[in-house]
Amino acid sequence: MSRRAGRRCRNTGAVRLPRWKFYGKTTVPEIRMGKNALRLNQGSAVLADANFTNGTISFDISIKQARYFPSIRFRIQGQDDFEEFYIRPHQSGNPDAMQYMPVYNGLGGWQLYHGPGFTNAAPLPFDRWLHVTIVVNDRQAEVFFDDNPEPVLFISKLKRSPAAGMIALTNLAPEDAWYANVSVTPENGLPIKSKPRPVPPLPAGTIAGWEVSSPFPEKLLASETRLSSALHATLSWEKLAADEMGTADLSILHRISKDTNTVFVKTVIHADRDTVRKFAFGFSDRARLFLNGKLLYAGADNFMSRDYRFLGTIGYFDAVWLDLKKGQNEVWIAVSEDFGGWGVKARLE
Fold first, then answer.
1. Which of helix, strand or coil describes residue 238?
2. Comparing C-alpha atoms, which of 20, 53, 51 is closest to residue 135?
3. Residue 242 φ/ψ, nearest 5 degrees
4. Exposed end of the chain (fewer CB within 10 Å): N or C?
5. Which DSSP state fits 197?
6. How many helices and strands, by DSSP H and E, does the chain display?
7. Is the C-alpha dihedral spanning 138, 342, 113, 185 positive or negative?
8. Residue 251 vs residues 79, 111, 118, 147, 236: alpha-carbon distances, Å
9. Is residue 65 within 8 Å of 123, Cβ to Cβ?
10. Is 119 left (phi over 0), alpha (psi -120 to 50) or beta?
11. How many CB atoms are located within 10 Å of the residue 176 CB?
């Protein structure tokens, strides 16, 4: 991995460098297994002037065998918009031992971005130093552990557009994680060893784009079985394309709040004649589906809603049969969100 050029921020005594700013409950400098380290516990260390787009980020991390999510954030555009790679010590060796996700408007989308290119299995060592290297080039990145020449994760497509930004070490959980020897080397054109697989076209019938409303309170729909103009007359609308997986990430357009955690997404289905068609869909976290103004479905796919192992990841887990009339038919889905990813996908089979 080349480090020939670029400005380097070598951080062997990371916490003493004035460029790092510290936030949160616990950001303590201490000696950890022979290294000058920063202990984070519900805290963050931010390199605000990193101006990092492409290049190499490396650091040592020491973790405990506990349920938490130590991370590195990069290309940070503000408090609520960045790329993030994190590990799950409690999932060591499992398919989601690590994960990449984009963050839009403060909402991490781990329930939307999973599988190849986002998560991978690897053993995570406890109570020793693990060396992590991340090589970033435009829309791709690779993550390496220790001196292994093969990446433990190939991020085949960074979801956010490349833009220079800050870097942060973050551990928001009430467990300790230690960081040391942080090095940031900006450099364009670094080679990526892994080769992306061809992206297949979306299956026929996939809804490739939606009209998305402005947010509103979920409680407004609690007892509604038909859409009245009073429910949506004041809403504004924007278009949002689905990605190569068929998923539309609603947090790209909007942020959630305690009072406004729901949007409508709508699409028009044209039928040449009266017919009944299967409509498979997925969502996070809750959905209410209307056809031509009439409620057909209400359900939840949020974290642990199906059983204690269900993560709330999005997929084609639900379906309804649409009684389509000849001509234009409108499908509206109210999608409500708590945490973990605000999204929808659908296909007419």
1. strand
2. 53
3. -80, 155
4. C
5. P
6. 1, 24
7. positive
8. 15, 12, 18, 37, 16
9. no
10. beta
11. 19
Q: By three-state DSSP, how is residue 67 classified?
A: coil
308: Cα separation from own chain's centroid: 21
Which domains does the chain carry? 9-186 (2.60.120.560), 209-348 (2.60.120.260)
- The amino acid that residue 25 corresponds to is K
d(CA 302, CA 250): 15
SS3 state at 53: coil
The 10s digit of each residue's pLDDT in 271-325 is: 999 999 999 999 999 999 999 999 999 998 887 777 666 777 899 999 999 999 9
Q: How far apart are the first and last CA of the chain?
A: 46
- Confidence band (pLDDT; 50, 70, 90) for 336? very high
Half-sphere CA count of 42, side-chain side, radius 13 A: 4
Q: Is 75 left (phi over 0), alpha (psi -120 to 50) or beta?
A: left
Cα(178)–Cα(64) distance, rounded to whole angstroms? 9
- For residue 91, which phi and psi values (nearest 5 degrees)? -110, 25
Let me know: does 344 contact 249? Beta carbons within 8 Å: no
pLDDT at 302: 80
